[in-house]
Amino acid sequence: FTAVAQTDLKEPLKVLGITEMFEPSKANFAKITRSENLHVSHILQKAKIEVSEDGTKASAATTAILIARSSPPWFIVDRPFLFFIRHNPTGAVLFMGQINKP
Questions:
Q1: Based on the structure, what is the number of domains in the chain?
Q2: Which residue range(s) make up the domain with 44?
Q3: Is-contact 63 72, C-beta < 8 A?
Q4: What does the pLDDT read at residue 2?
Q5: pTM to 2 decimals?
């Protein structure tokens, strides 16, 4: 069997008193970036466990979605495309992907 769960941790963190990072006017991520005023939109956690005759595999990942106070540019995706996420200081490609059917 396989079990997958995804949770948005925003509300549980707010209940614990962790609130400022979610508020655009109060969030301070100056040590992350100097060019943008950021705040956290959501913190998502996804966990997966697979149990079979061969054994058990488990994995989990947590990600924070940061948004700039100014609106990001909008564009229309109406054809297949490639994307790359690059580390600017080194030029290293961290992630790349291909979308065939947008």
A1: 1
A2: 2-99
A3: no
A4: 93
A5: 0.55
